[in-house]
Design goal:
By secondary structure, the protein is mainly alpha-helical. Among the domains are: 180-269, no CATH class; 288-356, Serine Threonine Protein Phosphatase 5, Tetratricopeptide repeat (Alpha Horseshoe), CATH 1.25.40. It contains 15 helices and 2 strands. The chain is rod-shaped and about 185 Å long.
């Protein structure tokens, strides 16, 4: 644009010169009217088209200059560099050799060469990839001192286990080893120990725990004595059952007493006290016929037991056998004095008692 402005100024100067040359030579001393007439004088013929031609020539020259300048400026721009192919990095090995953990001396560290290419810049050629060495530290091996400390402890544990197994094998007789059920008694306390622990629990107030302990001991003794013939009762099972049923009666567990005594009848034999306890439980459950039978079995061994005679009399009276009940009551009165409350209860049930 500066070139166009310059050309327009040159044209204006040339016009001014040509206009000045065609005026009167008087110049500044000419009359004012002459100057005004000169200003209003029409331009010479042919000067208008020539001026327009010069303007168009100047515009064409300016456009040419702009085109040339734009092409020159575009040629000065830097072409973007062509992308350089980058080689993929070398893959790491699938597994690295490491020192075995059992060797006391650690193996030297393994090294892995990894080629990482350098990304080239716009004006620098792609350099050759330089390998980078990575060091893999070895696994920490167990020090020999720690192994030496652990071996005696393991050896001592093995010796203790072997000794315990040997002692256990010496405790088990050959008959019990042949019969696995007989060896179950070793799993828990002995019958005497079970009785002592149950009595201690009962006296301390832990009655449920005492009953549970005796039930477990009875179950073990029952399995160990299964299949045997015990006319006088199993000597291992009898004291456990006596204590268990006594605790259960004190807790009013009459159904449990009846169940355990009927289930263990083959191993209890003719123990009279257990038959009497069985009759008492049956009487509390309303099984008066079973109660009479149990009391009669108990009285065969001990016919003068007053409590059992009165128990049989009460069950006979409940069954309506008042005459038999009176006979049992008279036998009890012959042994010792019977309390007036019991006699009054029998009279209320219709038992004909004689006054003494």
């Amino acid at each position: 644009m500066s070139v166009i402005n310059k050309m327009l100024r040159d044209l204006d100067q040339r016009q001014a010169k040509s206009t000045a040359s065609g005026a009167s030579p008087g110049g500044l001393h000419a009359d004012t009217s002459v100057l005004r007439g000169f200003d209003r004088a029409p331009s010479a013929p042919g000067k208008g088209p020539r001026r327009m031609g010069l303007v168009w020539i100047a515009v064409a020259c300016a456009a040419l200059v702009l085109v040339v300048g734009a092409s020159w400026w575009a040629s000065q721009r830097v072409a973007p560099p062509a992308p350089v192919p980058v080689a993929p990095p070398a893959a790491l090995p699938a597994a690295l050799p490491l020192a075995a953990a059992s060797t006391p001396i650690p193996a030297p560290a393994d090294t892995v060469a990894l080629a990482v290419p350098t990304i080239p810049t716009a004006y620098s050629p792609a350099p050759s990839p330089e390998p980078i060495r990575l060091t893999v530290p070895p696994l920490a091996a167990t020090p020999p001192v720690a192994l030496a400390k652990r071996e005696p402890a393991t050896l001592g544990l093995r010796m203790d286990t072997t000794l315990a197994l040997r002692q256990l094998a010496e405790r088990v007789p050959a008959a019990e080893r042949a019969n696995p059920q007989a060896g179950e008694s070793l799993k828990g306390p002995t019958p005497n120990e079970a009785l002592e622990r149950a009595q201690a629990l009962w006296n301390s107030g832990a009655r449920d725990a005492a009953i549970d302990l005796l039930q477990e001991a009875v179950a073990v003794a029952e399995r160990s004595g299964a299949g045997g013939a015990y006319p006088q009762g199993n000597p291992v099972l009898l004291p456990l059952v006596r204590e268990l049923t006594r605790y259960q009666l004190a807790e009013s567990r009459h159904s449990a007493v009846w169940d355990v005594l009927t289930r263990l009848e083959p191993q209890l034999g003719t123990a009279p006290d257990l038959w009497a306890i069985r009759g008492n439980a049956a009487q509390r459950l309303g099984r008066h016929q079973d109660s009479v039978h149990a009391y009669m079995v108990a009285l065969q061994s001990r016919p003068n037991e007053q409590r059992w005679l009165l128990g049989a009399a009460v069950s006979l009276a409940a069954l309506g056998q008042t005459t038999s009940a009176a006979e049992m009551a008279d036998k009890a009165r012959a042994v010792a004095v019977v309390s007036p409350e019991v006699l009054g209860y029998l009279r209320q049930m219709g038992v004909p008692l004689k006054d003494k």
